[in-house]
Design goal:
Elements lengths: L2 H5 L3 H12 L1 H14 L5 H12 L5 H11 L7 H4 L4 H8 L5 H17 L10 H22 L9 H21 L11 H6 L1 H19 L4 H10 L4 H7 L21 H33 L6 H14 L12 H7 L3 H16 L5 H28 L15 E4 L2 E4 L5 H12 L1 E3 L6 E3 L16 H10 L4 H11 L10 H9 L2 H10 L7 H9 L4 E3 L1 E5 L2 E3 L10
Antiparallel strand pairs: 1-2, 2-5, 3-4, 6-7
């Protein structure tokens, strides 16, 4: 097998050679590995690595090829590279690509290699970052084109139905989550108290991002390129830090194509995603510097635990064994990763996110800072107006500030976990409308369960029911043939549940209740991530009734 001759062949010709010499069942996988090495900047090193992996460094064939590669006196010309990537692209994209598309991938890959070593005075590689983003976007566009619906797909009705449900659920959630800059106080609540300087810098930048994206700039490409250009980016990859990823609040880009609405949607997505990715990267850089100064050995396991800690600190929890089904979980629940990040904040001081004492210590400090900061906000509100804060964790109002019939959640959504734990620990709950404390699983004088009395199972069920995504909520209504208001579901009502943005829902709640908080104040707070729930204007026993709809995405 002569690698130089193989490089001059098309993918089909190479597969034929590998099939003849090494077996037809191995031909495509070996050719894919061979072609991937040709993307590298140094072709000689790529050939050597390929030979070592496929043939072994200590085999006669491996030693022969490596020896000849070492004597290679010139790189292959661009013209010879044009046929390289057919198999590689097929495996990566799930579809065949044209010669022109393969050539473009090769061209962009060379650009990545050529700029990798160009460093500016700040130690960053801006040209490299832009080149990586350009290559990623081009390959992503090819992949999306390959996955586009075709008439021929109708022959697979099961696949079509699955795709339709996924697209509808993702689009509904994305539209619901848009029209605001909510990451500042929601995903950013923990960062506010643990890293206030980084938080305020990126909070201000999120407004700049919003305006620039609305004006037509590709803000997220710039954010990704800047992060990739950092000297610590290779450590971020080893740590599995979630930068350059799709955030759960914006699982699809389809709403961006809606005339008129699309531009506003893209702007809110840029503000949200830009804030969390910059904050994630900045906090990671800060603590990597602390670890180095503390002489902490940055092994792969250590980096992964650090990455997990700071993913969680910015609202991105890891779903554990459910991670392979993350798309399904994300379509059923509104913010599963945010909820998991709250759980991680509580547990990481004990587990250390699987890392060393360094991670465990930092996690403990983070927990103390978040609890102290949140408690300070609630204490100030209580000092101003004593009855505005509920101190009993068994009540749904715990961790919220009451203004009229409106509740402002100043915990980033963490209060619901405390309420769930308190109710299960004491097997009792407190009504947020009447103040009545009830025991869970109450029994009558004969020892039989009281009719309608809530149980621990009901508490858990309600907790997760309140976390349902728009699509999950609609499915529940249809299966139960009842909405949370007790009415029969209608097409119009469920369509609103699916596609009405949360700021619109919040405005209508405020507008319809004269006892609500000032509309402008509540709308501003909600837009920045301090979730506002307004109880119904209908009153029972002189008290407003709770809104019968799922808790907002902070929960």
């Amino acid at each position: 097998i002569d690698p130089f001759e193989l490089a001059k062949m098309s993918s089909a010709e190479r597969r034929a050679v590998f099939g003849k010499e090494l077996g037809a069942e191995n031909a495509e996988s070996i050719n894919t590995a061979f072609e991937s090495k040709l993307l590298l900047k140094h072709q000689e090193a790529g050939y050597v690595n390929w030979a070592r992996k496929m043939l072994g460094e200590n085999t006669p064939a491996g030693r022969d090829i490596i020896s000849r590669v070492r004597r290679m006196d010139k790189l292959l010309s661009p013209a010879e590279e044009k046929a390289f990537l057919e198999d590689l692209a097929a495996q990566r994209l799930g579809t065949r690509v044209s010669v022109e598309e393969a050539s473009r991938i090769a061209e962009l890959s060379r650009k990545v290699g050529e700029t990798e070593g160009i460093v500016d005075p700040d130690g960053k590689r801006p040209e490299y970052g832009r080149a990586v983003v350009e290559l990623r976007n081009y390959v992503s566009d090819l992949s999306h084109e390959a996955q586009r619906f075709r008439v021929s797909d109708l022959r697979q009705p099961g696949k079509v139905a699955e795709k339709a449900v996924e697209v509808t659920a993702g689009t509904a959630k994305a539209i619901k989550a848009s029209l605001d800059d909510s990451a500042i106080f929601r995903q950013g609540w923990k960062a506010l108290w643990t890293n206030p300087v980084i938080w305020q810098r990126n909070a201000r930048q999120s407004f700049v991002d919003l305006v620039r994206e609305f004006g037509g700039k590709k803000v997220l490409d710039e954010v990704d390129a800047e992060i990739i250009s950092r000297p610590t980016f290779d450590l971020m990859k080893k740590a599995k830090l979630d930068v350059g990823t799709i955030e759960e609040a914006y699982p699809t880009h389809l709403p961006a194509k809606i005339p008129g609405f699309g531009r506003v949607y893209r702007a809110s997505e840029a503000a949200f995603t830009g804030f969390v990715h910059r904050t994630r990267a900045d906090v990671f850089d800060k603590y990597i510097d602390i670890a180095r100064k503390s002489k902490v050995e940055l092994t792969d396991d250590q980096l992964k635990s650090i990455g997990k800690m700071f993913n969680s600190l910015t609202g991105r929890g890891h779903l554990g064994r459910a991670e392979p089904a993350a798309n399904v979980v994300n379509n059923v629940f509104f913010s599963p990763r945010l909820l998991k990040s709250h759980i991680d904040l509580l547990l990481q001081p004990l587990t250390g996110a699987g890392g060393s004492n360094f991670v465990r210590k930092q996690a403990a400090l983070n927990l103390v800072k978040v609890i102290s900061g949140t408690a300070a906000v609630l204490a100030i509100a209580r000092a101003v107006k004593p009855d505005s804060v509920e101190t009993d964790p068994r009540s749904a109002d715990f961790g919220k500030i009451r203004v009229g019939d409106s509740r402002f959640d100043v915990t980033g959504g963490m209060a619901s976990l405390a309420t769930l734990a308190a109710r299960l620990a004491t097997m009792s709950s407190k009504s947020s409308t009447t103040g009545t404390v009830r025991q869970l699983g109450e029994r009558d004088k004969s020892g039989q369960p009281k009719f309608g009395a809530p149980t621990g199972k009901d508490v858990i069920y309600d907790f997760f029911e309140n976390k349902l995504s728009p699509a999950g909520s609609v499915i529940k209504d249809v299966l139960e043939q009842s909405t949370r208001e007790g009415a029969r579901p209608t097409v119009l009502g469920e369509a609103r549940n699916l596609f009405e943005p949360l700021p619109v829902t919040n405005f209508l709640e405020l507008k319809n209740n004269p006892k609500s908080a000032p509309i402008l104040l509540a709308m501003l707070a909600d837009a920045l991530g301090i979730s506002v729930n307004t109880y119904s204007g209908k009153r029972q026993g002189g008290r407003p009734t709770r809104p019968k709809r799922p808790e907002r995405r902070a929960q």
